[in-house]
Amino acid sequence: MGTAMTIKVSQMEGRVPVTVLHVNGDIDASSHQALDDKAAELVDAGATHLLLDLSDVGYMSSAGFRSMHRIHTLLGDGGKEGSSALKLLNPSDEVKRLMKAMGFDTYLQSFTDLRAAIDAF
Amino acid sequence: VGADLGNLAEVREFVMEMSSLSGLGDTAAKEMRLAVDEAMANIVLHGYRGSPGEIEVDAQSEPQRLVIRLRDDAPAYNPLDRAAPALDLPLEERPIGGMGVQLVRQSVDTVEHRVTDTGGNELTLVKRRA
Predict the structure, then answer these.
(1) pLDDT by residue (tens digit) across B8-23?
(2) Fewer CB in a 10 Å sphere around the end CB: N or C, chain A?
(3) What is the C-alpha to C-alpha distance for residues B18 and A8, in angstroms, rounded to an integer?
């Protein structure tokens, strides 16, 4: 069975304050709402830059892409040099392949190193 | 299984087991898992529309391919009729969503829909061994 999804939130300081969402578990049609809600809550509370840590996400369906799309739309292009204020950490090979297939890779940057990700905002 | 999003994980697990038993490679297995998950979520959300129902998941390992069929008793509905999303537009200009069916198409070798004798739906997903 896939693990139930949990989200932990932490705060990092770079050029700008970055809120990190560490997601653990599968992001699918049954769980993506929790991610949408958490991101909306953080943005309401003033978060302007989000890093989505996918290191512990074993599976992501189009529901996850829908969430990323929604979060990107909420935040806009507040990153360095007009890049998205949403970035990804450690997406799986499968997610990277889907990002490309869906044309998301042009708009959302992915990183394998936390510090490099924070510095890119 | 019951037509409930809470059962997606169990079905994904089943697809991975069947893919492994039928000798699909890791990438192909994950593509089949994605296609079945997207198709089943579609049946729950757009077929049964939240009302209770059953989805039969049937896997057949054939010499050159794995065939998975999803049968339901929801009103006849062909997900493949949905228009492809505009993947060439910037995210800001795209409508959110509509990617599931596109991923189903991209992830398997063939996908076909037919209305069953009882008026329900049967979606057949085929993944060939490389």
Answers:
(1) 999 999 999 999 999 9
(2) N
(3) 33
pLDDT tens digits for A24-66? 999 999 999 999 999 999 999 999 999 999 999 999 999 999 9
- CB within 8 Å of chain A, chain B residues 9-28: 9-10, 12-13, 27
How many beta-carbon contacts under 8 Å exist across A and B? 74
How does DSSP assign A60-100, residue by residue? B-HHHHHHHHHHHHHH-S-SGGG--SEEEE---HHHHHHHH
Instruction: Please tell me the distance from the alpha carbon of residue B29 to that of residue B95, in angstroms, as a whole number.
Output: 30
Exposed / middle / buried, residue B1 (Cβ in 10 Å: 0-12, 13-18, 19+): middle
Is residue A43 within 8 A of residue A75, CB to CB? The reply is yes
Predicted ipTM beyond 0.90 = yes
Across the interface, whether the CB atoms of B91 and A63 are under 8 A apart is answered: no
- Beta-carbon-side half-sphere exposure of residue B79 (alpha carbons within 13 Å): 32
